[in-house]
Each structure stands twice: as C-alpha cells, then as structure tokens.
C-alpha cells in the first residue's frame, strides 16, 4: 500500500513509538546497531515525478542499514512563490511521492526551511539532500545550519534529467504535442489553441496520415512483389524438375522411346526360319 501521510494513524503510531531520546551519531547510524530505525528526512517539489526523484529517495533510504524515510513535499502556494508554477497540483505531487517504494511517510505542505520545532515534531535524525545550495529569503543556504550541526547527509543528483528538462522538451516540440492531443479528442479550447492554429494543426495531422498511408501502401506493394518473385521461382523450379523428369536422359519419355525403338527394330527385322537341324537358314541355303 502507499506510504501514509504524517497525520494518518500508521505514521502517528510509528512516531509515538520512536524513542527520540536516543540521538544517533553518523557513526552509530552507519553501524546499524542503534536501538531503533534512523529517521531520515528528504524534501523537494517532485513535480513530474521522474527517475531522478526516485534515485534521490533510493539514496536517502539506503544511507544507513535501517532507515525510516520521511519525505516532505512543498505546497503549491509555497512552491509557486519560490520556484514558479508547477505542472502538477500539490495533491498530484503528494500522491506521486507516496507511491514510491522507498518512501515510508509523506509530509504535505512541507516548509522551505527546517527549524528545530519541525525536526523535533517529526523526530528527524538526519536530513538528506544534494549539496547544491538552496537560498532562503536572506540569501543563505537553507541547509547551512543542518550542515554545521552534522545532521545533513548529501545525496547525488542524477545528471541529464530534471523537471525543467521535461518541460523544455514539451515546449520545444509544442506543435507535435498539440497535434497529438487534438488527434486524441482534446478541443482547441482545452489546449488554449486559436481557431487558425487548430485548423493548421489538423491539416498537418491529415498530411501525416496520408504520408503514413502512402508509406504502408508502398511497403505492401514491396512485400507482394517479393512474394510474387518467390512464388515464380518456386513454380519455375517445379516446372524445370517436371520437364527433366519427362524429357531428360533418364526421363519417362526417354524410356518409352527406347522401348518403342526396340519394338520397331524387331518388327522390321524378323528372326530367320529354323533348319531341320535346328540352326537358322541363311540366304545361301535358300539359293541352293
């Protein structure tokens, strides 16, 4: 089942039964010999949840042998004020994160900066994030105090993938995606497309359909041509075999001709009449 939110029964039970009087050092957490799980907190926006997000959470979950991973997700209001508009709503982002296999608990409407009140309430031992500084309103790194206290553990960013990259791909191929969605039944109004652009995109879709249809026709012709040539080769081979079987040196007609030839020779050259002594009579004997 998906990870619970921090205000749900399973998460509350886990938090209430955590002995937060025991404070993990980094060495003790890595040894895996503590009396309880290490409560690690990771946070972010997690818009268009992708493999980079999943890898970050996987790293956080595997920082120590026994980890209970809490993930904070910032609200729409806070995110839009700090980083700009998101593609997904807050509820969509919360749901995406809680269905990640590495997550044990999700905190909705997470703060931009973590104070002691928040850390103590959620009984957080370590905070996991990449080392790139994230600026507060005062211009300081929001994780600076945590790094100074030794409770910040760095994770590695996944190169080549980010939410901004995904948005850039969509913007770059805007026409293709608009045409795709028009073909799938979305209206121009839903896509915020003008009347003229809608007609242009629909015309382009028709041209693409005709191009694909022509390509398929040519491919079918090519396949049929190959089939016809193959069948012709097979038939011609059968014809040659049949011809040789009938007219070849050892063929049926050759045998018939040889037999007929022998019979004709016998017909035109009958055997001589036998003598009284049983030997055949030759022409000289008849002349006498």
From TrEMBL:
Biased composition (Basic and acidic residues): 274-288
Keywords linked to the UniProt accession: Coiled coil, Lipid biosynthesis, Lipid metabolism, Nucleotidyltransferase, Phospholipid biosynthesis, Phospholipid metabolism, Transferase
Protein name, entry field: choline-phosphate cytidylyltransferase
Family recorded in the similarity comment: Belongs to the cytidylyltransferase family.
GO molecular function: choline-phosphate cytidylyltransferase activity
Leading EC class: transferase
Entry EC number(s): 2.7.7.15
């Amino acid at each position: 089942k998906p990870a619970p939110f921090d205000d749900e029964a399973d998460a509350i039970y886990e938090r209430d039964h955590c002995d937060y009087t025991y404070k993990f050092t980094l060495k003790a957490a890595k040894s895996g010999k503590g009396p309880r799980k290490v409560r690690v907190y990771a946070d972010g926006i997690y818009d268009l949840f992708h493999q980079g997000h999943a890898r970050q959470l996987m790293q956080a979950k595997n920082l120590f042998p026994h980890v209970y991973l809490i993930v904070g997700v910032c609200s729409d209001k806070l995110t839009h004020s700090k980083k700009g508009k998101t593609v997904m709503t807050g509820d969509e982002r919360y749901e995406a994160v809680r269905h990640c296999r590495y997550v044990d608990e999700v905190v909705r409407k997470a703060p931009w900066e973590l104070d002691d009140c928040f850390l103590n309430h959620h009984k957080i031992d370590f905070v996991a994030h990449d080392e790139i500084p994230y600026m507060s309103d005062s211009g300081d790194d929001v994780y600076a105090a945590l790094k100074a206290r030794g409770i910040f553990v760095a994770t590695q960013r996944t190169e080549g993938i980010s939410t901004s990259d995904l948005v850039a791909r969509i913007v770059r191929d805007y026409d293709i995606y608009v045409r795709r969605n028009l073909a799938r039944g979305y209206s121009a109004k839903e896509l915020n497309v003008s009347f003229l652009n809608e007609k242009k995109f629909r015309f382009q879709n028709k041209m693409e359909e005709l191009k694909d249809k022509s390509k398929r026709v040519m491919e079918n012709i090519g396949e049929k041509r190959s089939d016809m040539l193959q069948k012709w080769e097979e038939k011609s081979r059968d014809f040659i075999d049949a011809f040789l079987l009938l007219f070849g040196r050892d063929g049926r007609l050759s045998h018939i001709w040889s037999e007929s030839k022998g019979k004709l020779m016998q017909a035109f050259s009958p055997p001589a009449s036998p003598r009284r002594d049983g030997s055949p009579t030759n022409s000289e004997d008849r002349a006498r």
